[in-house]
Recover the amino acids of this structure.
């Protein structure tokens, strides 16, 4: 008895088609429960994100010895305030029996979600990169750090970071 082994291209295509059919089934219980679980986790993570980022921003503003990163750290707070609640709203509207193609609420929520996700995630990435460069310059330049890194230049770089992130989100 010989076992027929399919060629690699046919097998890969069959697996991809099966996965696609499984993921696009709207009446699938796995789909339903994964969305509900994701919503529950995002409620808790949103609360934690808002709380911890607010405490961090407050501590940096209160401590005069730390450099104030202006609006740089607000990108992570924006994820907790805007992106995660919109993520929850998107999943809740996807669980509704009405098809998403004709649902204007879903279209509005989804477009706002995409814009804010791109804005805050790219801003968060760019800000962390900027803070890393700032710490590198502080270590590398040591006593000469204050010359090239002035308050005006930091403000200009933070504005450029947010403008760059806003241009990526549109």
């Amino acid at each position: 008895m010989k076992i027929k082994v399919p060629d690699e291209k046919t097998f890969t295509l069959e697996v991809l088609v099966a996965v696609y059919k499984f993921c696009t089934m709207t009446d699938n219980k796995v789909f339903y429960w994964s969305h509900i679980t994701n919503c529950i986790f995002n409620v808790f993570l949103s609360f934690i994100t808002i709380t911890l980022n607010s405490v961090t921003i407050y501590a940096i503003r209160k401590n005069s010895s730390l450099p104030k990163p202006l609006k740089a750290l607000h990108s992570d707070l924006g994820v907790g305030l805007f992106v995660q609640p919109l993520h929850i709203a998107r999943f809740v509207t996807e669980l509704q029996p009405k098809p998403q193609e004709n649902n204007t609420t879903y279209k509005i929520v989804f477009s706002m979600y995409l814009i804010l996700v791109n804005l805050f995630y790219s801003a968060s990435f760019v800000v962390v990169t900027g803070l890393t460069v700032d710490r590198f310059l502080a270590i590398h330049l040591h006593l000469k750090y204050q010359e090239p890194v002035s308050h005006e230049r930091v403000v200009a770089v933070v504005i450029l970071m947010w403008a760059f992130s806003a241009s990526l989100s549109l």
